[in-house]
Design goal:
The chain has 121 residues and is an alpha+beta fold. It is built from four helices and four strands. Strands 1-2 form a two-stranded parallel ribbon. Strands 3-4 form a two-stranded antiparallel sheet. Strand 1, helix 3 and strand 2 form a beta-alpha-beta unit. Helix 1 packs antiparallel against helix 2 and helix 2 packs parallel to helix 3. The longest helix has 25 residues. The mean pLDDT is 83.
């Protein structure tokens, strides 16, 4: 292996570490890093899942009824993290929900479909 390859690998690892730290800070999951999945609440699992998805550098997020199974307190806990993901990582989010409150908190644009057609935008 050449020296330039090793330098490139070191830079790539450093960049990955920087991205990971940014994700951990954004989602507030630093205190969870030592826990196994069995020791996480539903909201914590969702935040960790978002972090794992972000680390894969997606070009967009599809969130289909992401919070449907959570109670109101958990939804209110998770909504700011979801909003921060789009802002901080400049990732478009297609958020599907029947909960008007969630949509109002998270969106700039709303499309209302009915029978496969857009009836409002």
């Amino acid at each position: 292996m050449g020296v330039s390859f090793l330098r490139h690998e070191a830079r790539a690892r450093g960049k990955a570490r920087d991205i990971l730290c940014r994700i951990v800070d954004l989602l507030g999951i630093g205190y969870l890093l030592g826990r196994g999945p069995k020791n996480l609440s539903g909201g914590e699992k969702q935040r960790v899942a978002m972090g794992r998805a972000l680390f894969a550098s997606p070009s967009a997020f599809l969130m289909d009824e992401l919070l449907a199974s959570f109670d109101s307190a958990r939804k209110e806990e998770l909504l700011p993290f979801i909003a921060a993901v789009g802002r901080e990582f400049f990732i478009p989010i297609l958020y599907v929900s029947h909960a008007l409150h969630e949509i109002k908190v998270l969106t700039d644009n709303v499309i209302t479909p009915r029978e496969g057609r857009v009836i409002a935008a």
